[in-house]
Amino acid sequence: MDASEDELAPEVRSILAAARDRSGGESRVSVDARSFPDAVDAAEDEGRVPVVAEVKPTSPTTEGTRADDPVELAREMVAGGATALSVLTEPEHFGGSTENLRRVREAVDVPVLRKDFVVSEAQLDAVEADVVLLIARFVGDDLPDLLEAARERGFQVLVEVHDRAELDRAVEAGAEIIGVNNRDLAKLEVDLETFERVAPHVPDDATLLAESGVSSVEDARRMRAAGADALLIGTAIMDGDVRANAERFTTAETSE
Ligand SMILES: O=P(O)(O)OC[C@@H](O)[C@@H](O)c1c[nH]c2ccccc12
């Protein structure tokens, strides 16, 4: 463990340790990806706020587990206007699975993001997805190689950053889809100012996501005003009627 890992919340250290032990797929995947930037543009043209709705059965910061069929939840989210979906595949801390992702991607026609803690090339082969997440803080110096390895397989790549230094590394590596995570992985606390601080430095041609902590229509408007092309929303959509929740956020700029 390097020095910066000492600063991570214990839950996050446990997630990372588990991620390092996880095996990859049996053979190399080749993905015919649905374009995420095009889906974002289409939503925008139709007057909807581009929302990536997340199927997240549980998390270290959520109470309880939602046991509903992920496919049902996914369909409801799309019916509520979601532009894309994010599906947790991390099994031990988020209740996810690669099987959930496979089934969801088969059931909907929007782009689907694989939400996991991928730290090695072989893990990219665990399941097909339209977009795969790489977390700058966790992949460290391997970011350029993993980005390249993911693209060779046909994935689009969402690179998650939390501060200016990580953003610079993402841009340097050639990231085209960038997410600023409002949740600090050291303390697990959410602060929407994180996005506001980092967003002005993101190149204009990147597709920019605000991730985590968007819990109200006001938060959604605030992130959009700060430059978010799309919002990644989990808890606030998973809690209650997912269709109505998704609709509330996708219409945040056209409702009262
Ligand atoms: O539930 P929230 O606060 O709306 O957050 C969603 C998403 O941003 C969060 O689940 C997340 C952001 N980055 C991650 C990395 C791995 C697992 C999960 C995440």
How would you describe what is shown here?
38% of the residues lie in helices and 15% in strands. The longest helix has 12 residues, at 10-21. The mean pLDDT is 95. α3 crosses α5. The chain has a single domain (3-250), classed as TIM Barrel, CATH 3.20.20. It is globular. It is built from twelve helices and eight strands. Indole-3-glycerol phosphate is lined by residues 54, 56, 115, 160, 181, 211-214, 232-236.
Chain-wise SSE layout:
Elements (H helix, E strand, L loop, with lengths): L9 H12 L14 H10 L5 E5 L14 H10 L4 E5 L2 H4 L3 H10 L4 E4 L15 E5 H4 L3 H10 L3 E6 L2 H9 L4 E5 L11 H6 L8 E5 L5 H9 L4 E4 L1 H4 L3 H9 L6
Parallel strand pairs: 1-2, 1-8, 2-3, 3-4, 4-5, 5-6, 6-7, 7-8
The structure holds indole-3-glycerol phosphate (IGP).
Give a brief rundown of this model.
Keywords: Amino-acid biosynthesis, Aromatic amino acid biosynthesis, Decarboxylase, Lyase, Tryptophan biosynthesis. The protein has helices at residues 10-21, 36-45, 70-79, 91-94, 98-107, 136-139, 143-152, 164-172, 193-198, 217-225, 235-238, 242-250; strands spanning 51-55, 84-88, 112-115, 131-135, 156-161, 177-181, 207-211, 230-233. With 256 residues, the protein is of the alpha/beta class.
Shape designation? globular
Strand content: 15-25%
Order of strands, main sheet, comes to 1-2-3-4-5-6-7-8
Number of helices: 12
CATH architectural designation: Alpha-Beta Barrel
Distance between the termini: 49 Å
What's the alpha carbon Rg, rounded to whole Å? 17 Å
Mean pLDDT: 95
Identify every distinct bound molecule in the structure, by name, code or SMILES.
indole-3-glycerol phosphate
CATH topology: TIM Barrel
Poorly predicted regions are: none
